[in-house]
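## Example pair
The file below holds two records. Each record gives the amino-acid sequence first, followed by its structure token line.
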Amino acid sequence: MSETSSSFRQQILETKLPFEQKDQQQDFQEIDQVIKKQFEEQFKMVSQQLENTKDMLIQGQQKVQYDSVWTLVVLDTEENSLYTVKRFYIAEEKKEREKIISQQMLNLAKKEGQSLKDCYDPKSNLKTIIQYYDEFLMYPNYYIIMENCPYNLKQFMDNPNCQLEPGFKNYQLISFAHRIISALNQISNQNNKQTNSKKYTLKNRQIESILVDNLNQIKLCDFQSVEDFINEISHKPEEQNFYYPPECGRSDTSKDCLESLKADSWTFGIYFYLLAGGSEADCYQIRNSGYKKLYALDDNLNSILSKILCLNWQQRLSTKDIQAEFENLLKQYEQIKDQFADQVYQRFEYYKTNNKQLAYRYITICTQILPDDEKYIYQQGFIQDDLKLYEEAIQSFEKCIKLSKQKGKNDKIDNYYYNLAIAQKNQKLLDEAINSYLSAIKIDSKKAIYHYKLGIAYVENGDLQKGIKSFTTCQELDKEKKYHCHYNIGLAHSEKGEWDKAIKEFSLHIKDIAADSEKHECYYNMGNACYEKRQYEKAIQNYREAIQRYQDPKYYYNLGMALMLNKVIFEAISEFENCRYRLQDKNTLHPVYEQLAICYKKDKQFHKAIELYKLCIELDKNEYSYLIDLGVVYEENQDYAEAIKTYGLYLDKYPQDKSIQRKQKNAENKLNKIKRCFFW
């Protein structure tokens, strides 16, 4: 999603927010245009998700000062996308439990947003700083929207189901370390260039504050100004936090130490130590008494780490020295990259069927080692699609196409277009998917599967005639009848209301299928076509054929409808009860209850009909027509008092409905007539 199209502040909610003083409200409006106009529907969904969904994925459950990092689904106007969100609680309680916006907390939140904007460099090839998108206020919280990162680094490394084998885990560890230290040096370089602007350093010095994106690459997202860092350390010594070097907070600490950001070197060393298997207890011991050898690491890495976690800040390696050390380590892999990538790929092949998440970790290492290898990128796209990482899969297949064109190879490019189309369709990008299928067909028009998938995309996109044409072409090419063309042509004719043509195609499909167990959907849809033609006996026959092969609740429901319209009420009740018994989601039962109530009403079993309509009302309180139906049953059961009461409940919602007013009046007249008869 582009930065320009991702703005969450297209139109903003007009609301009165409690401020400490009137001039603060004016000041806030000038700082950020947060309270102007009514939200668009998209933003309402975002705010509802933020405020009401309490079971969102929270990154590490961490709360540092006033913020925590969340992942949530944001429904964009153009696509469904995931973003990472930082939330800042900006309310404070005054007298009599009145909550107002704290200007101090609001400023802290705005500082966070500004630091992300300043630190992110769109021109950098590193892409290790998380991308900022937008920020907004929704009282009592302030939100910052960033690119999606589904894990923090600790979650990623500690996942018991995705542990790499030792030799490969060592490479991932070094690779992550190199990206972290490179990002810190990127910030340092920006600091050196900005003589008059703010300089930045790490803010939340915890391993949970480093995120991992869907390409299994790390992203830094917590920064603060060096000035704020020095002030915080001066006033609030972090003696109990092992992420801070031992000199932080000491009265004799040289300001040069902090300004040269040797504190970042120490923090990086702790990150690496924990990622390599060190414990927090060991980290406290290092801070107090010096480096302790970690047996999970070789002598070379232990030697480097001892120089990073040096108690004397003047002897500690700088971030630039650390980067150079890790670049040398990566060069050792560079010398054997083809052989090493092949070894990693073998592990991917081993795990790709039974553990896709772990397999994905291996294939991403392959693409990191050899970023322009079509084979690895293609397999990465495949497993990304399997893991429903459709945006990433699209990027992988597009890169395959680009590389293939650059190399002048066309032997696989149609397959790349075909798999790109599948990912685009999964991402609901139907127009783009259709164009990709057409590109594949342009290269190789003899592959039936391309036409078949194109037909499905056309039908889903509403272009039924083109879909039928594509399925027909597939039929001509598909001599072995591997694909369900007749079935899909039948569905397309059904969508067009061409019931006779649909029945013909469904009948041909049933003849083509060898496996009897695969015919149930075809019988069901043929039953629907007969139902629409009011050929209820044929519909009943087809629904029974479907149920014989597979007991789907909707098959019983439609069979019940056909039996009811064919006036076989007793059997209709039995089939609706079968549907009721098999429905797992009890919240979807109200249509079944409604049809059962109609059947019992027709069968003069009014008490059962009344109970079922009450259940309908309980399950769907917004469907007021059930009150009318219930009132009618009460009348037929001569319970006029309850009928009057039920009609009254409906008229409370729709007081101008004259037809129900007349029904209520008729029930009152019938009740009065009974009373008069009783009196005489």
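Second record, same layout:
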Amino acid sequence: VGFTKVLMAISMMIMLGLIIGPDLPQGWGVVWANFPSRSKTTVEATIPLLKGRINEKAAAALVVFFLVMTIQAVLRPSKVAVVPPMSGSSGATTGAAANSAVTIQQNAYKLGFEDATNGKDFGTSLPLDPTTPLETAASPRKLGVDTDGTSSSYFDPSSYSMPSSPSSPMQKFGISQVISLGVLGFQAMRLGRDVHGVFSPQLLLANLRTTPPMQLAVLIFPIYNILKIFF
């Protein structure tokens, strides 16, 4: 589990603590009864844009949605692209091809030597039928022998497959990232605008320092939701 996932889980637990914590001593019946109203209060405090624009049921559904998304993000394993190793058959094929090349060269030399010894024309004893093993195996492409007679490594393209390239961040960008950007943008404008409506980075930083940690912790979710598309 990565560091951002840990922060995300902590922020979600803090939100749940704010919602169900006050009612836990009175039992789960009271917790469930007050869950919608406390969800509305917490959501409006975290996202002032929704203040007065969301009812209790919608706020409770939003909290449950955040909880499900957090659990899914924390438990989902990270995707790691692994280059598949060369199969063992490729190495065996390389050795077999090299040995076959040496054998064919020795046989061809022997047949040529016997032709010369017996006074026959060069190549008389060599098979001319292209279907024979000697000529079929003599192909430089199959034997791993270059045209200049030197041996080279045998490579079978069919034995290797390229790893699938990961999708780009823009392909992962969806509606959840749009919502996260909207939440962060609204919070930045709310904390960074002065009385005249002018945005000031210095005012934003000053207000962030005085913002309750509970509200800042909840913002970890939209931040992580945006950053995760790059990994």
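Notes on the second record: Residues 19 and 42 are 7 Å apart (CA to CA). Residues 134-145, 151-155 have pLDDT under 50 and may be disordered.
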